[in-house]
Specification:
The complex is a heterodimer. Chain A is mostly beta strands. Chain A contains no helices and eleven strands. Helices cover about 0% and strands about 50% of the residues of chain B. The chains are: A mainly beta, B mainly beta. The interface of A and B includes residues 44, 93, 101, 105 and 108 of A.
Chain lengths: ~120, ~110
């Protein structure tokens, strides 16, 4: 899986399968986490976010799970479609009043969905 | 509502030339950010601004300057471009309050320095 700091992993799935993209973070004080999707040639788009006082949050076809004990974040995509093919980034916000919403991004996971 | 726009979309510079990238947002966001994205890497923060007239350094500020003269605009300048600055540049903006720290991104500027 991805780490806020490592090489770019890849995940290939068949259309209709469920996808799980992982992310490890290093700052135990981070209080907010977010997943972005980036299609080729475009800017990142928001998928879902979660605060550190939660361990699960669901959106449309997506679920984010947060395990603070092991500093791990995952994005689950149900019934993956070819249009889900993209690079997925996790990002964290360090806690503290002067963070100004600054996010630290992981290096991304390439998801390829085969028809 | 255009969101976040960036100009230009593409640019090729020779080493030593200067240029300014323009970012504009129409969401009345207080915070704005400039990132660079290199192949196989995530987004790295260059500079950011927490309001009109204020700027601050991010993770990789060397070789860049910024200005935020108007709330809706955030300019990124390269005074003397170097090949190491070949990258895709993204601007983003966000609210300064609320439950979400979502940053809204522009489409990017692809810069090549030869």
């Amino acid at each position: 899986g991805e780490s806020v700091g490592l090489h770019l992993p890849t995940l290939s799935v068949q259309e209709g399968d469920n996808s799980i993209i992982n992310c490890a973070y290093s700052n135990s004080a981070s209080d907010y986490f977010i997943w972005y999707k980036q299609e080729s040639g475009k800017g990142p788009q928001f998928i879902i976010d979660i605060r550190s006082n939660m361990d699960k949050r669901q959106g449309q076809r997506v679920t984010v799970l947060l395990n603070k004990t092991v500093k791990h974040l995952s994005l689950q995509i149900a019934a993956t479609q070819p249009g889900d093919s993209a690079v997925y980034f996790c990002a964290e916000r360090g806690a503290g009043g002067t963070s100004y919403g600054k996010l630290t991004f992981g290096q991304g996971t390439i998801l390829t969905v085969h028809p | 509502n255009a969101g976040v726009t960036q100009t230009p979309k593409f640019r090729v510079l020779k080493t030593g030339q200067s240029m300014t990238l323009l970012c504009a947002q129409d969401m009345n966001h207080e915070y704005m950010y400039w990132y660079r994205q290199d192949p196989g890497m995530g987004l790295r923060l260059i500079h950011y601004s927490v309001g009109e007239g204020t700027t601050a350094k991010g993770e990789v500020p060397d070789g860049y300057n910024v200005s935020r003269l108007k709330k809706q605009n955030f300019l990124l300048g390269l005074e003397s471009a170097a090949p190491s600055q070949t990258s895709v540049y993204f601007c983003a903006s966000s609210y300064s309050f609320g439950q979400s720290y979502e940053q809204y991104f522009g489409p990017g500027t692809r810069l090549t320095v030869t």
